[in-house]
Design goal:
The chain is mainly alpha-helical. The chain is built from 4 helices and no strands. The radius of gyration is 16 Å and the shape is elongated.
């Protein structure tokens, strides 16, 4: 697998990843916690992408592996900031998939 193919695959995965990440994110979490979850999820998705496009042997090729991880991370952050957050789709998914907290009697 060429570096260009790896980056293209990583970009495609990263562009859609914020929608999946929004399923596990919670609106009440701090911005820092949300960023940590997003970065860890992107790195995990990058590893899965590398393994799926090139098999385990792909990890022995440093540049394509690093390019894929970077592409997933960059595309996921960019897509979230430029598309999914402004369209309110990602925040709506966060809200819809978050457990509802019952009000406490006081």
């Amino acid at each position: 697998m060429s570096t260009l193919d790896s980056i293209a695959a990583g970009s495609a995965v990263g562009a859609l990843l914020p929608l999946l990440t929004a399923v596990v994110q919670r609106p009440q979490w701090s911005v820092r916690t949300k960023k940590i979850v997003a970065v860890v999820t992107a790195l995990f998705a990058g590893v899965v992408t590398v393994a799926s496009i090139g098999g385990p042997e792909q990890f022995q090729q440093g540049l394509p592996t690093l390019g894929t991880l970077a592409a997933v991370l960059a595309a996921s952050q960019s897509a979230y900031d430029l598309v999914w957050k402004p369209s309110t789709i990602a925040p709506a998914i966060e809200s819809a998939t978050s457990p509802k907290v019952a009000p406490t009697a006081g």
